Amino acid sequence: MMRNFIYKTLNLFSPIFNRIYKNRLRVLAYHDIVDQNQFEKQIQYLKTQFNIINIEDLKEHLFKKKQLPKSSVLITFDDGDFSVLKYGLPILKKNKVPTCLFVITNLINSQKPFWWDEIREYLGNDDGNKKVKEVKSWPNIKRENYLKELRNNSDKPNKIVSQLTFSDLVELKTGGVFIANHSHTHPMLDMSSEYEIQNEFEESKSLFKKWNLNGFDVFAYPNGNFDKNSELLLERNQIKLAFLFDHKINKKNVNPLRISRIRVNSDTVINEFKVKTSGIHSFIASHIRSLN
Ligand SMILES: [Zn+2]
């Protein structure tokens, strides 16, 4: 209730921020589609309020200095959840809206769960959520060993889920979804060794090549975690665009390897969605931080 009231009030300022930030690129980061109706309302709002661009438009802007249209927004999805195909694609096609999907190459054509869901499955939701948070701050090798132990020591059968197949990727691509790179196994890059990161890129690169997809060089940092070292490795592997997960609208000059994204969910109610996409959020957050 309180949350709805706050967003309803904040939403009075959305038109102002939409205007102030009309020259700032907005990139939205979704994960799965849990509410198809709400998602369609969001897409229709974006179509009336913004110019929805695709990855090629962004590349031309960043590398060929071509101007973006006013009030540009790019829509992205992380992790390659099956629901994006099942519930998202029909809406995107119907509304003729381009998007970008960041896939974890190791999971394509598999029935393997996301590793964070696996932890929740074994530990239950409450303990699982805490553990997922904790594990994200561990060195990558410790995280991998922990997952192996969980699988080996549990009586439960390994969780099986629907992951996207290669032919699903083709269907998505045909429907206007640019298939991009979210690493091979979704480790935290700032918690991984140089060897591990290099391996992630080599594995995903060979699969993008095998599948004849050209999105290897468009990358979203798993969990948004990055540091100087991982950025150097991105450059060494010819990654051209890299996306963060920092809940911010972009500055006027966009650094191609540090593109900000605003987190949204398919079930975010429309007032809250309007507020978040306006950029108020990132304005308020930066001012709260500077007060601290
Ligand atoms: Zn992710």
TrEMBL record:
Its localization reads:
Secreted
Q: Which GO terms describe its biological process?
A: carbohydrate metabolic process
For this protein, the record's InterPro entries field holds: Glyco_hydro/deAcase_b/a-brl, NODB_dom, Polysacch_Deacetylase
What range(s) does the NodB homology domain occupy? 71-292
Q: Which Gene3D superfamilies match?
A: Glycoside hydrolase/deacetylase (3.20.20.370)
> Sorted alphabetically, which PROSITE patterns does this protein's record hold?
NODB
Organism (species):
Gillisia mitskevichiae
Cite the Pfam families for this sequence: Polysacc_deac_1 (PF01522)
Query: GO terms for molecular function, please?
Result: hydrolase activity, acting on carbon-nitrogen (but not peptide) bonds
Its name, as the record gives it, is Polysaccharide deacetylase
Q: Does the keyword Signal apply?
A: yes
At the top level of its lineage, which domain of life is listed? Bacteria
Q: Which key words tag this protein in UniProt?
A: Signal
Q: Just give the chief location class.
A: secreted
Listed GO cellular component terms?
Answer: extracellular region
